[in-house]
Amino acid sequence: MFSPVETTDLVQQIARQISDAIVSGRFKPAERLNELRLSQEFGTSRAPVREAARLLESQGLVVSSPRRGFFVRTLSAKDLDDIYELRIGLELHAADLAIQKIGDAELTALEAQIQNLYDLAEAGSIEERISADSSFHRMLCSFSGNDRLLKAFDDLATDMRAGIALIGTIYDDPYRMAETHVPILEALKKKDRQGLREALHFHIAAARDQIVPLFESLNKTP
Amino acid sequence: MFSPVETTDLVQQIARQISDAIVSGRFKPAERLNELRLSQEFGTSRAPVREAARLLESQGLVVSSPRRGFFVRTLSAKDLDDIYELRIGLELHAADLAIQKIGDAELTALEAQIQNLYDLAEAGSIEERISADSSFHRMLCSFSGNDRLLKAFDDLATDMRAGIALIGTIYDDPYRMAETHVPILEALKKKDRQGLREALHFHIAAARDQIVPLFESLNKTP
DNA sequence: CTATTGTCAATTGTCGACAATTGACAAAAT
DNA sequence: ATTTTGTCAATTGTCGACAATTGACAATAG
């Protein structure tokens, strides 16, 4: 009859806001999180801010140095490379699992997401296209039926977004971005396991090869 | 010349102790973490305990319910199944990466770990054998050179240990446990990618098929 | 006897305060 | 000029306290 009343949960709210600031690039890597100033901005005391920072710490977004405070974690080119490399392994496995369980409803959802990518290629911001791309891959992972795998993907996605935000903007060919998803869907429809693996591998490796060099060149001239 | 003086870092110490208690089964699933009692036992105030709990929260060992506190997370049979299923994907990918980079030093280290398993089969506790088994697989992951993958493995290993602790004890055939690692090493030596994948898959799936049913039967009679 | 309501101790969420430590800057020495 | 030492404001780590909420139990009504 009634829906639950909004559970405020200050810590979660603060963690979310800080996380967004980091992922969106508003907080730069290695930047110090000033507890006092943050707490004043949030209109709270320092305690919830510290707890939120701890939460982000084991999530990997923040590192703590005793007696020196919390800092936005730095992201090296190798980190990004590792992230995309792991993503290949994760999604290939997700694909293996999903190809057995997937039904028409799931295929339709993926198809709609690709259509969405085409639409955004016409009229959409880079952020929207990146987000839609991520959604497609997240969907694939969720169709594996493995919650733990999905969580691992989400962790990686967070860092990928942070990496992209750091670069500022990426060159993207929106139509190509949409197109390269089609072979993945086709292979899924045909239940062509090997073809699916190849299409996915190609797609993710291409993304990696576009992002990582950009990031490297960025850090060469500080 | 000198090594850094022990940085106390109360929060990390507390988090470690609570984590150990959960993983070792001394804290049962769904058990409430009483902040006041814990802080008294640690001889601190509640603040560091709460921060430690937050740290464990996004690590997945603890869940928080607003206004009700922190609880040890529950582990379902599906969770365990997902964990082992993901582990297969993770280690297969690690193997793919490691097979290219691995050298004699690494092979020797893995061999020593297998020898260790044989030794512990003679005279060693179940805990020691489980720990040694985990070390072997962790090594393999570390040889992938992908730090992020290694971290993902560590996260899974934590939960696997918790699952095993929950069951209390597992039936293990120590010699068989040691033996099934040999084909993995052999395939690595021969750089036989397909053989390695099969050996690993077989090995981990066997572990899953031993653990998960045990866990299911445990939860049927509460 | 069962179900609802009222009460209360136990516990959490949040706060402000204080001591300890750090990093920076200035002063002094080589 | 460079290095060392001394000083100090800024910041963190930790604490104890208080209000708000919860869950359980007792009292009451049907």
TrEMBL record, chains A, B:
Transmembrane segments: none annotated. Coiled coil: none annotated. The keyword Transcription applies. InterPro entries: GntR_C, TF_FadR/GntR_C, Tscrpt_reg_HTH_GntR, WH-like_DNA-bd_sf, WH_DNA-bd_sf. Residues 8-75 form the HTH gntR-type domain. PANTHER family: GLUCONATE OPERON TRANSCRIPTIONAL REPRESSOR, TRANSCRIPTIONAL REGULATOR, GNTR FAMILY. This is GntR family transcriptional regulator. It comes from Roseibium algae.
